[in-house]
Amino acid sequence: VQTCALPISTEGGFIERTKEAANEVARQTNLKTIDSVVAVYYATKGSYPTDINQLVPEFLHKIPTDPAGGTYYLTTEGGVPKAAVK
Predict the structure, then answer these.
(1) Under the phi-then-psi rule, with left for phi > 0, alpha for psi from -120 to 50, and beta for the rest, what region is 61?
(2) How far is CA 33 from its chain centroid?
(3) Which of 47, 27, 25, 28 minimizes the C-alpha distance to 38?
(4) 7: helix, strand or coil
(5) Is residue 22 within a helix (H) or strand (E), and if so which, with residue range?
(6) Is residue 3 predicted with pLDDT exceeding 60?
(7) Among candidate residues 40, 84, 39, 34, the one with its CA nearest the CA of residue 64
(8) What is the per-residue pLDDT across 37-78, written as a single tens digit (0 to 9) for each?
(9) How buried is 33 (Cβ within 10 angstroms: 0-12 exposed, 13-18 middle, 19+ buried)?
């Protein structure tokens, strides 16, 4: 029986890079979701939210949790709210 043993990585290795990549995909998905919900909010209310918490609970069940421990908020680009994370 032939086996292919992959080395178990430490920090900075394959596993760490994979986790970081997964976190970044989840973060980008959350940002896109919030941006979409902002557009629905505008279509429904006729104005933009001034704070991300205005999206809860009518438009979002809860504010997503950032996988890297950051906090989502709304910033403004060209007069339109845009999701960001700090």
Answers:
(1) alpha
(2) 8
(3) 47
(4) coil
(5) helix 14-45
(6) no
(7) 34
(8) 999 999 999 999 999 999 999 999 999 999 989 999 999 999
(9) middle
Residue 51 neighbours by CB under 8 Å, 6+ apart = 74
Provide the whole-model pTM: 0.80
Q: Which two tokens stand for residue 5?
A: 């043993």
Q: What DSSP letter does each residue of 24-80 carry, written as one string?
A: HHHHHHHHHHHHHHHHHHHHHHSS--SSGGGGTTTT-SSPPPPTTS--EEEEEETTE
In the block, residue with structure tokens 């909010």: 41
pLDDT given at position 13: 87
